[in-house]
Amino acid sequence: MTAFGKVSLRGNILQRGRSKERSRLLVFNHAVLLLLTAFAVLPLLILFFNSLKTKAEIGANPLGPPNQIIAENYINAWEQGNFATTMRNSVIYVVVTIAAELVLGGLAAYALARKKPPGSDLLMLYFLVASTIPLWMYIVPLYTQFRIWGLVGEVHGLIIIYIAGNAPLTIFLLRSYMIDLPRELEDAARVDGANELQVLTRIVLPLTKPGFLTVGLVVGLGVWNEFTLALTFIYDPSRAPVTTSFFKFTDRFARDWALTSAGAVIIIFPVMVLFLALQRQFIEGLAEGGIKT
Amino acid sequence: MATIPQKKIATGFLDRLTDETWRYKFTRNVLIPWLFILPLLSIHVFVVAIPAVQGIYMSLTDWSGVGRNVEFIGLANYQELLFEDETFGKSLTNNFIWMAFFLTVPFILALFCATLLSQIKRGGMAYRSMLFIPYVLASVVTTAIWRNLLSPRKGIGAAMANLTGIEGFDIAYLGRSETALLSIAFIDNWHFWGFLMILFLAAMQAIPPVLYDAAKIDGANRWQEFRHVTLPGIRPIFLFMFMMVAIWSFLAFDYIWLLTQGGPGGSSEVIATQLYKNAFLRFEGGYGAAQGVVISIFAGFIIMIFVTLRRRGWDI
After folding, report:
1. Amino acid B170: pLDDT
2. Fewer beta carbons within 10 angstroms: which end of chain B, N or C?
3. Residue A107: which of B36, B116, B253 has the nearest Cβ?
4. B150 lies in some domain
5. B137: nearest Cα among A15, A246, A83
6. Contacts of B137 in chain A (CB under 8 A)
7. What are phi and psi of B160, to 5 degrees?
8. Could you tell me the pTM of the whole model?
């Protein structure tokens, strides 16, 4: 790739006339891209502005920057929206789902990538077909089944669904990372007397960390933002994640944009911090793993 | 037959040895790997596979979803759905409108933007990140933002009306039956198209630059370059996403539920919102399950189209 890049660069330098034309065209590129970036980012900026205004100021100036910064909106939103509870709940949903998914998915992917027991091809086919089954096909029977098992309304019930829903994606991604690993390292560890679990935890895991990070990010973001399943399976406000709780909150305070805007900023704050810190992993991970139903 | 005499010859010691290696091999190559796979597989089977099969049976009953009163009623749910339920036809039409929107607007936008972005050498990463931000936002947040921005008195429409002095921008986009569905699609697309753009951009960056140089030497203009180098280069991901977006069009739910719940007057109702109301608000589990099966049939049908085209030699 770099070699190709150099060739084309030299080509541009040699063709002076064309390169001038090129740079003029790039002005057009930047102009359009800035416009599109504004389209993507300005709504967020307006949200942030509104979260710092008084209710009265939003009425007079709903789109511009605030005249006076009202930070109390955040305190009010935090208390009225019960964010202390729902943020904690969401963190539990996210952390437990990621942990379970990575442990169980890591085990399964390792077995499929390395051991290939009889039936693994069939299993991959199963996950491929299963990943195309729409949620709407099984949500109603799942609900009735979970009711019988006493899992409706329970935190662990929803987590089990999240683990299952992300299973195909986790297995596909982790398996593809593990297949790329050179086998010799594992064999060397075995010669030194390591058992299968030790080979997995001491050799394979450290080398496939990027894969686990990718899966963790994709799964974690999905669970943090998830709405439909939480709406269906959790009623008790004390167990609700931020998403469904915030939806009720916006309903209740529909007229108070300052308050609901501050609440929205609270929800996206952790995601934004992570996104800005790990842009590359986020974008590549979601591009790789986000292609799922 | 030939193995029997051999076995007789083997001493007890050898017998045990081969037996143990067999057992050792079985444990190592079959038992332990499957023990590794089993936990996740069983969770998946209980949450997805079994309920999916149950859904087919449930759709043939009049079960409310609660209690023990289950009566097998054959295809009556489907009959009612297809021939008697007037809202179903309306919902299905809306799903197709949704599909028409999402197979054009985000694709054109993403293709255009990715092409421009792929030609930029500096600052590409900054654009990429900022254009991608809406995709990482929760649907509850995206809808909250745009409900405000599209409000008739304080939103963008009002600002436009003030600025230009032209009436007509300041309407309740989400509150009118003519504009509700398209407004929701617009909002969902605001969140979605950046993701599609990133996928196209990644595919474009994987095209070897020599192909562009060759096109230039052949005297191709920008359009010809795009048509004969860029498009073929991103063709696999483009067609794959075309299929996925077509499938997702039948699953659309959360943005609609969050913004209008199908209203006003059923104007933004889709199959999934109808299903949700039937199964979880009206307790018509069997009927809801039938709608779930119908959604899956549409999804399966789209996959079949693509598989058939591929079999016929299309490079998909």
Report:
1. 78
2. N
3. B36
4. no
5. A246
6. 44, 225, 268, 271
7. -65, -40
8. 0.88
